[in-house]
Amino acid sequence: MEQEIVKVFNEQHQQIGTATRAEVHEKGLWHETFHCWLVNEDYIYFQVRSSQKKDYPGLLDITAAGHLLAVETVESGIREVKEELGLNVDVHEVVKMGMTSCSIVSENMIDNEFCHVYIYHFKHDWDAFVLQYEEVSGVVRARLSEAEAFFLGETTTLNIEGYEYFPDGQRVRIVRPVGNAQFVPYRELYVAQVIKFTREKIFNQTS
Q: Matching PANTHER family, A to Z (predicted)?
């Protein structure tokens, strides 16, 4: 996976070449990712990253996301929803929010991303998920109104509920409050912007 080839960009999002995933993270080169958030009128969903992951194991993250390979279009990224969550979602079923940039510096890597953000109206129940266990160990959700306040910094904890899933078909219920330390450190206000877009543009809600 680290040897997969991705497009490399300058800060103005102009392509300047290609590199391996390992190289872009080692050198902090700008590259493209695909983000798909599962939402409904009441909730936003997060994946629980597998404990086997090299980066941010066990933390809460975008519902489904991944790197766009050099040979892929942006829309090809919809495959991540099937690969990680087991959901068959057509690109025509998602709403494009737009592109944002995100930069995360950790001791393991410099991750500079142009993120293509999509929203999927999730109408199924917990049985719909068939997880890719080396990538995702669970799925949880939080109420939109509570999540918006949390990611705007108005509250310090967020109540989540969901399940940890196991390869043998078993699942264990998760109900607990979490804080910022339990989330992958994406750009401040990013998730709040996703929620605002979801409420206003998809469900015609106001805060």
A: ISOPENTENYL-DIPHOSPHATE DELTA-ISOMERASE
The beta strands (E) that lie in 144-191 are given as 158-165, 171-178
| pLDDT above 70 coverage of the chain, percent | 100
Which of 49, 54, 52 is CA-nearest to residue 107? Answer: 54
Contact 206, 198 (CB under 8 A): no
Q: What is the pLDDT of residues 139-152, one digit of tens each?
A: 999 999 999 999 99
- Contact between 158 and 167 (Cβ < 8 Å): no
CA count, 13 A, side-chain hemisphere, 29: 19
Look up the CATH number of the domain holding residue 92.
Answer: 3.90.79.10
Number of domains in the chain: 1
Query: Which range marks the domain in which residue 131 is found?
Result: 5-203
